[in-house]
């Protein structure tokens, strides 16, 4: 043990038991705020290992409030912390994919290190976060979509959020969130902000168990598939982890600079998302189509990115995605 009191020294690589004990102490509130802050920063600066990520995520899973989900439900979630302050791509993808009749249990939170998280944008669109949390299971069964507000399903995180905001940078908690979906989905599209970390994160996901998931990262450090350049993609199944590269042309889409999808506060991002669902054609639409196609592959709804883009575009252009959002907001 180090000066961090009940927490081990992150200068040394932690084995599974050490990591499990450390995150039990953090989540159960038996470590001081100062010790947690120092531990998380030191861990991020050293670089989290597959074993540490998996153990931390398991600690969150052990303490979460779960819900039941339909067979085949998926999640589309980015880790955040990429610093690009883009529009809410994964949130829009969740709505579009659900409009393609794939159940989506969208896990998310308010912004910790960005201007507008998924919860902030959905709230600006008119979704009642309290009602959404209380009725998540019913909404998922009836509408095929729900928002699993991390603050409601992970009560152990309550005292961690102020610490994360004070740190103001990516920590292992950005990595843990997508691995602790309260619907216990076994199919996921997870975006992370560090391309070099894709195989490490994928191995952590493999260690935790999944039927078919994909871990993605844009070469610019984007926590989603990027239209600006290349992307690292890890295909994770129960059998193995396989790496591949992908570019926008693979999905029949043009390239766009990241600046073309830069967002703002929750209201600005909500307006852009609503315009997208109402048929506006721009770089944001292309980014959503690219990532939605990947999610549809994960769900087993399509076999390739070209078909996925076509199906996602149809859900938007026929008004299905916009109608779904309206039903979701009005759900009582």
UniProtKB/TrEMBL annotation:
Entry's cofactor comment: Binds 2 magnesium ions per monomer.
Domain Glycosyl transferase family 3 N-terminal span(s) in chain numbering: 14-63
Protein name per its UniProtKB record: Anthranilate phosphoribosyltransferase
Enzyme class: transferase
Keyword Lipoprotein: no
Subunit-level organization: Homodimer.
Family annotation (Pfam families): Glycos_trans_3N, Glycos_transf_3
The keyword Magnesium appears for this protein: yes
Organism taxonomic ancestry: Bacteria, Pseudomonadati, Pseudomonadota, Alphaproteobacteria, Sphingomonadales
Recorded name of the encoding gene: trpD
Pathway(s) per entry: Amino-acid biosynthesis; L-tryptophan biosynthesis; L-tryptophan from chorismate: step 2/5
Organism: Sphingopyxis soli
Family of the protein in this entry: Belongs to the anthranilate phosphoribosyltransferase family.
Domain Glycosyl transferase family: 73-321
